[in-house]
Design goal:
Helices cover 11% and strands 37% of the residues. The chain is mainly beta.
Length: 371
């Protein structure tokens, strides 16, 4: 006799039995909703694009047009302070204290905010006292930029700039160098969309096809010996590394955030959805001084923060916690519903297959259909 025939009467009778999931799982992620306020004169509202985090937890966010044609809507740069208040730091315009199509942001070691403005072909900086200045103007010479899209600081406080055909690098002494050349081969790039450096000295550079017709979706890495390797063809628009060597990547077309640990293992950190811990069109990621992962989402118009000290998210359907979904998970779920098994927060989160906030035999039916 099949398992479905055995469990059928139980599942049919028990549809009214349910248990609340609770909030332990969702609380691993903190959610910060971004205010909806289109720039003056804009027909459409801008959407979250670049992200940086200050040493005190202040969130800095750039906004531009919808992905991938980000320059279609005037942008802005705003911040959320430690008390939760949002304010605009730079509105639409061409002056130094304004932005046209801002993309990547980086928070410097001296409390300075750096802004990559793709539309104005420049990189600006905002000092702690609110003074704006020009860091890199338009051009192809050292210290100039053509289409800056991503900014990141290294452990040595070098500023990396993902640009057209290269990655610019500015050291603390003000010396400019460049990594990569224009092209499509190893160590070459058409237009960089994201950049990061892991503690082992590996330089990671991403490109996105949708931003420019002749570009391509590609992720490359240059190791400490100088060797370039192509890793993936996903459209990563944001990258960040933590002190442990974990690399985090935002993939908007997949509606996913990925991580790669220092041993090379890849993991999906967040997948498609609007609940806490899920993402829609993630555009950028940033790791703060506490090691927490921050994610800027265009689709959900919010920023989420994950504390790595929390235990990893359970696999949906893996009720018994053995790393896979099997018939034993269906039986465990039913025992939970009728009160025959102890229930922890991870089991509750894994058992709520229909994401309605309750554990019921309906979830068991859904899990059974997956097997």
């Amino acid at each position: 006799m099949s398992l479905k025939r055995i469990l059928g009467p139980i599942l049919g009778v028990g549809l009214l039995l349910s248990l609340p999931v609770g909030t332990a799982y969702a609380q691993r992620w903190s959610v910060f909703t971004v205010p909806q306020s289109p720039p003056s004169g804009a027909a459409r509202a801008s959407v979250p694009r670049g992200l940086a985090v200050g040493n005190d937890g202040t969130l800095y966010l750039s906004e531009s047009g919808p992905y991938p044609m980000e320059e279609s809507v005037p942008g802005l740069v705003r911040m959320r302070d430690a008390t939760g208040n949002w304010s605009v730091l730079a509105g639409p315009g061409t002056d130094l204290d304004h932005v046209l199509s801002p993309a990547g942001l980086a928070f410097g070691p001296w409390g300075t905010l750096y802004v990559a403005d793709t539309g104005m072909r420049r990189v600006t900086r905002r000092d702690p006292d609110g003074t704006w200045s020009l860091m890199a103007s338009a051009g192809e010479r050292p210290g100039q930029v053509c289409a800056p899209r991503s900014l990141r600081f290294t452990a040595a406080d070098d500023l990396l700039i993902a640009d057209w055909g290269r990655v610019g690098r500015l050291d603390p002494r003000g010396r400019w160098t460049a990594e990569g050349t224009f092209g499509y081969g190893p160590g070459q790039l058409y237009a960089g969309s994201a950049v990061a450096m892991t503690p082992d000295g590996s330089l990671w550079v991403a490109e996105v096809q949708g931003m420019y017709s002749n570009s391509q979706n590609r992720l490359q890495v240059r190791d400490s010996s100088g060797k370039w390797t192509s890793v993936s063809n996903v459209d990563y628009t944001g990258m960040a590394s933590d002190a442990e060597g974990n690399l985090y990547l935002a993939a908007p077309s997949l509606n996913e955030v990925w991580s790669r640990d220092r041993l090379g293992a890849w993991t999906v950190v967040a997948s498609k959805g609007s609940a806490a811990g899920q993402v829609l069109t993630p555009m950028d990621v940033a790791v703060d001084v506490a090691g927490r992962l921050n994610v800027a989402e265009a689709g959900n118009r919010r920023i989420q923060r994950l504390d790595p000290r929390a235990s990893p998210a359970p696999l949906l359907g893996d009720v018994d916690g053995d790393g896979q979904t099997t018939v034993s998970d269906v039986l465990s779920l039913l025992r939970m519903v009728v009160g025959l098994s102890p229930i922890g927060p991870d089991a509750l989160a894994a058992a709520d297959l229909d994401q309605d906030g309750l554990i019921s035999t309906r979830d068991a039916v859904l899990l059974l259909r997956r097997l």
